[in-house]
Every structure is written in structure tokens, then in C-alpha cells.
Structure to design on (121 residues):
């Protein structure tokens, strides 16, 4: 997947990033996040790696863009981080992975989803 990340200082296109439906957040190297000016969030998250090892990751706020769709996302980073796109980013962009073909598909119209159920009382 080719994904553009954007922060306060600029944008960076990340080509051929692995989509991981077992990962919650998108993960990239810290220098990429610093380069684009992603906003560091005041929370660190415990991340379990594929080998069962736990690491503490910094979290950042950024914008993600794919094929003209753009949404706010949380991106994490830690030493040795590999680039992946997690399900939170897919959901924010209105995407999912087709379990049969493995290809990305749209699940809603372009734009950020916001559902509000007003009280009928």
C-alpha cells in the first residue's frame, strides 16, 4: 500500500507499506514522524511484537492519505520499528482488506465517518 503521512512540517509518501490487519495502529520510524512534523501525543503504548516481545512505543497524531482519501490517525514508533499500516488507519480511510483476495476495498463513501444517534425523547 502506498500511504502519504502528513504533519505540520510536510508530507511523505511511503511506498509499498505492509498492511497488517492484526495491528491496531500504523507504525513508522521516528525520523519520518519528526521530518513531517507529526504531533507527539502524551501517551506511550505497550505493543506486543510478532515474536511475543513487548515494547513501549511513542504515539503521534498525523494525517494519512490514500487515493484522495484523507483522515486523522494515530501513528506509533519505537526503536527498530518496521513500517506497517494498522486497522485504525484503514478504518479512518474507509478501507478494509478483502479476506479472499487480500486486496484493499472501500467500505463507505469518501470522507470521515461520524455517526450520531440523537435521542428521541
Amino acid at each position: 500500500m502506498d500511504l502519504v503521512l502528513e504533519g505540520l512540517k510536510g508530507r511523505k509518501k511511503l511506498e509499498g507499506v505492509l498492511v497488517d490487519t492484526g495491528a491496531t495502529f500504523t507504525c513508522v520510524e521516528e525520523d519520518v514522524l519528526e521530518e513531517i512534523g507529526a504531533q507527539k501525543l502524551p501517551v506511550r503504548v505497550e505493543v506486543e511484537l510478532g515474536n511475543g516481545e513487548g515494547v513501549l512505543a511513542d504515539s503521534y497524531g498525523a494525517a494519512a492519505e490514500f487515493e484522495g482519501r484523507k483522515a486523522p490517525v494515530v501513528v506509533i514508533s519505537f526503536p527498530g520499528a518496521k513500517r506497517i499500516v494498522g486497522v485504525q488507519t484503514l478504518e479512518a480511510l474507509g478501507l478494509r482488506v478483502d479476506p479472499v483476495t487480500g486486496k484493499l476495498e472501500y467500505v463507505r463513501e469518501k470522507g470521515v465517518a461520524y455517526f450520531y444517534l440523537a435521542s428521541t425523547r
Remarks:
- The chain has a mean pLDDT of 92.
